[in-house]
Amino acid sequence: MNLSNLAEKFYDIYGYKGKKFFFSPSRINLIGEHIDYNGGYVLPCAIELGTYGCVQKRDDNLIRLASGNFDLRVETDINDLRYEAKHGWGNYPKGVIHFMKESGYGVSGMDILVWGNIPNGAGLSSSASLELLIAEMINNLFNDGQISKLELVKHCQKAENDFIGVKCGIMDQFAVAMGKANKAILLDCNSLDSKYISMNLKDYKLIIMNTNKRRELNSSKYNERRSECEEALDILKKYKDINNLCQITVEEYEKIEKYIDKKEIANRAHHVIYENQRVGEACKFLEGGHVSKLGQVFVESHNSLRDLYEVTGIELDTLVESALEHGECIGARMTGAGFGGCAIALVKNTAVDDFMNKVGDKYKRKVGKEADFYLTDIGDGIREIDAII
Known about the structure:
Blueprint: H1 3-14, E1 20-29, E2 41-42, E3 44-57, E4 62-67, E5 74-77, H2 91-102, E6 110-116, H3 126-142, H4 149-164, H5 171-178, E7 183-188, E8 194-198, E9 204-210, H6 222-236, H7 250-256, H8 263-288, H9 291-307, H10 314-324, E10 329-335, E11 342-348, H11 352-367, E12 372-374, E13 383-385
Parallel strand pairs: 4-6
Antiparallel strand pairs: 1-3, 1-13, 2-7, 3-6, 4-5, 7-8, 9-11, 9-12, 10-11
Helix pairs in contact: 2-3, 2-4, 3-4, 3-5, 4-5, 6-8, 8-9, 10-11
């Protein structure tokens, strides 16, 4: 669907022309998985798959939501914004509007149409993309663009945590808002300090690989993993003055890990602390153009997520193993929260088509599902689109 189609559909639904158009990207995380809620470093980037929106103010307090991806439409009053299971995807916009209104920002009735090209349930953060799209609409339409991107990020995370009920960290929303073309973002999830890292992949291409096993965070073990990390933190606090797991270095952890009696709790902490160190290594290799070493760190990360954090599963493991069997792939790993969704691979530019064909065939034979592959640019964050329709 291009913007002309979006405008036409808006007219078909609402009976008049929408005036404002916006785009909100999705994201991939290069490395640093299950780190954001543990106060460590992550390395995400925004990609040019995302969510488009057309919006127009209303003269009343009615919020009308429609999607080009789902038949479900939602109508609600701005003074009656509650989570309702029957409203499905519409709860994400409702949550953002609720918390921005609660914080005193300007907002009133709107007619909104959204359409996304993010594969549904692929773990590329379609929820954060939708949330930031709505937040940027509110910022632009009612607040003269004066709300900082960081404030938008925080409100969208709060909507997902407290309205939807998924205790996600801040990485997804931050990457969607702050993305920059051809840059990854090194984000300290504790302080929210960040810097951009150039995507210096030389002769290699980053390929996104979709298992086509749908991932639903609020029905997965995501919240369980977070709880297990909190249990590890409570134990380790007795031996080191810390507020989060990522304040422990690898060397320090090796001296105190013996105090965690439960093996699975020790495994969760081990992954987090070593993964946090791998993010620093990945940045060094990316900035120095040492792509093969970056690929090795990808593999170490995936193995840890498989064996210690236990969030991969047969689909992700098969896809990553099939990728690594290809002679021109130097690294692969799951990306996102796991439990299905996507993986990424570093592949020689000249071998991309061969890679996708052979890996797709192996995956289909072993799992019985089709894998999808995406080649997409690293792009900018949320933005208004100037459109002459």
